[in-house]
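Worked example

This section walks through a single chain of length 187. The input is the sequence exactly as stored; nothing has been trimmed or padded.
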Amino acid sequence: MAVKVEITARNLDVTDTIRDYVTKKASKLDRYLGELEEVRVDLAYVKSARSANDRMVAQITGRARKAILRTEERADELLAAFDNAIDKMQRHLERYKGRRRHGRGDGRSAAEVAVPMPEESPEAELPIIVRRKQIKVTPMKEADALEQMRMLGHDNFFIFFDVETNATAVLYRRRDGTYGVIEAKAG
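Given that input, the structure is written out below as tokens.
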């Protein structure tokens, strides 16, 4: 069964030559993981990139039966970004396949496989929280939260209570300049 390849483009035109190149390379990903069902390739030109060398973005999402694997690479040329992303996805698929194959065990006991741990205490390795802050979560709609985030000059995220979903939400700015929302749910 051949893997289904879907290509989308944002802020750029994809020629038939590029589309054929991307389809050919992306369809070969099932060699690395046979259960790969679908590969989505998102190609974009991002004007708001911090560097001119990061304006072309290639994001590849691979869907398998029990996993979703995603890579994103940036470059000054579209095909360079895509080639870097496809190489990275191949490494992800190999690593995922290795984890699945070796994750079930090979019959040895945990004592035979275990790597000796250093004599340090586990607390010494954990990162410490250096600041704790409480905030008042204001009820508002997503559009109002976006406006508030911009007015306050928050570049990364803004926490609010979404009146439409009755849930605490985090509005965040993505690397490509767009925004995303994370909604908190109990359970």
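What to look for: Residues 4-100 form a domain with the Double Stranded RNA Binding Domain fold (CATH 3.30.160.100).
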